[in-house]
């Protein structure tokens, strides 16, 4: 039973790592071009989008760091080392901070704001 469980966990980690590779490729595309990877027919339905190509690059960098966190979690599970847990937490924290720094356009009222401003406005 334990061997079957190890095989299932290993297969799941392989799937997560494959998704992380895809996220890294898409993140590199966003960082290099400053364009969104979401198709236009879906992007037009989104309420908030990145305000400028610079902000799209920040979102791409956050995606890359988030994918590194996925790899760190895979290594933490495989090696049972607390270092990788800490590395994954640090990467996730950095990705959240970068996403909060990116300015976004709210299409309902054409207002540009960062996640920090929205967060502080929500806490008031």
Structural summary, described in words:
With 124 residues, the chain is mainly α. It has one domain (2-123). Helices cover 74% and strands 9% of the residues. It is built from five helices and three strands; from the N terminus they run ααβααββα. A three-stranded antiparallel β-sheet has the order 1-2-3. α1 (2-33) packs antiparallel against α3 (53-79) and α3 runs antiparallel to α4. The mean pLDDT is 89.
Question: Brief overview, please?
Answer:
This protein has one domain. It is 74% helix and 9% strand. It contains five helices and three strands; from the N terminus they run ααβααββα.
Q: Which band does the percent of strand residues land in?
A: 5-15%
Give the number of domains: 1
**What is the straight-line distance between the termini?**
52 Å
Contiguous helical run count? 5
Major beta sheet summary: 3 strands, antiparallel
| Helix-residue proportion | over 70%
Overall mean pLDDT: 89
What general form does the structure show?
A: globular
Order of helices and strands: HHEHHEEH
Strand order of the largest sheet: 1-2-3
| Low-confidence region ranges | none
- Helix/sheet category: mainly alpha
Radius of gyration: 17 Å
* Secondary structure tally: strands: 3
């Amino acid at each position: 039973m334990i061997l079957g469980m190890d095989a299932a966990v290993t297969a799941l980690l392989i799937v997560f790592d494959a998704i992380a590779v895809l996220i890294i490729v898409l993140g590199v595309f966003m960082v290099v071009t400053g364009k969104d990877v979401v198709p236009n027919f879906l992007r037009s339905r989104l309420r908030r989008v990145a305000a400028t190509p610079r902000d799209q690059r920040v979102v791409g960098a956050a995606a890359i760091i988030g994918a590194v966190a996925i790899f760190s979690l895979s290594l933490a599970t495989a090696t049972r080392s607390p270092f990788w847990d800490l590395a994954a937490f640090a990467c996730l924290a950095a990705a959240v901070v970068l996403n909060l720094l990116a300015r976004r356009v709210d299409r309902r009222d054409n207002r540009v704001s960062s996640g920090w401003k929205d967060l502080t406005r929500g806490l008031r």
